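Researcher: I need the complex structure. Ligand is iron/sulfur cluster. Inputs:
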Amino acid sequence: MAVSTSAAKRLSRPGQEAVRTRGWLAAHKWLLLRRASQLTILALFLAGPWFGVWLVKGNLTSSLTLGVLPLTDPYALLQSLAAGHWPYKTALIGAAIVLAFYLLLGGRVFCSWVCPVNLITDAAAWSRRRLGLKTGKTPAEATRRWLLGATLVVSAATGSIAWEWVNPVSFFHRSLFFGWGLGWLALAAVFVYDLTVARGWCGHLCPMGAFYSLLGKTALARVTAPQRARCNDCMDCFAVCPEPQVIRPALKGSGSPVILSSDCTTCGRCVDVCGQDVFRFSHRFDQRSAS
Ligand code: SF4
Ligand code: SF4
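Model: Output:
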């Protein structure tokens, strides 16, 4: 579908109507909370190596908070099991805690509220919109699931946690901890890739995203569109959403107004930018709809 020049110009700055009607702060509320969450988690990890304040030891793969709370990435644990290494009891407890958290809130909450690479892919998406770049060829949607399977096979074949060799999330941490040069190059590559291919990394390639999406299938916390009758088809929510295909069934369908796809990252950007106040955070059983 051809997009007129004025519409394309407007979609390069989505959320302007919401800013006019609700004010800048309210129209960026969930974005600001998300950035606070991502940066606080990073700061907690960095406080030890940078300032000697060891509230949290480790990284997003495996950590210990205040000396008592173990947290383990269940995807890393799965690779470890595939590699033939039986983890310590603490790692199993840590993975169970993380699993329970994301099974309840939605797996891809990790992608939008925790993962530091999201700062890079969001920056690339923002730049793409502002520069009006057309997207290059996106990989098939199933690619990240194939990559997820491949990392388990390679882990089994090599006896190592295979994804850690190339994981941009770990590169991000190592780059900040140790100023590691090659890590920055990998992160720059993710930025350039997402600048040229819309939602290329998180939406199509990252096996961590695929893993956490599987966890989110039955999650309770959801975004819903109870006021979908008010939608004026401005397309701002589609422009900012990192997984825009998840919006249409809830917004334009006649069934449930709840966004049920586990690919939704529960980022809340659609809630922020909609000038008609269509979306809300809620739960999967909330079927209220004005339409
Ligand atoms: S729900 Fe409708 S009015 Fe709201 S941002 Fe999306 S397209 Fe625009
Ligand atoms: S539907 Fe809304 S909450 Fe879900 S990923 Fe898209 S913008 Fe974020």
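Model: Summary of the prediction. The chain has two domains: 17-22+220-290, 55-214.
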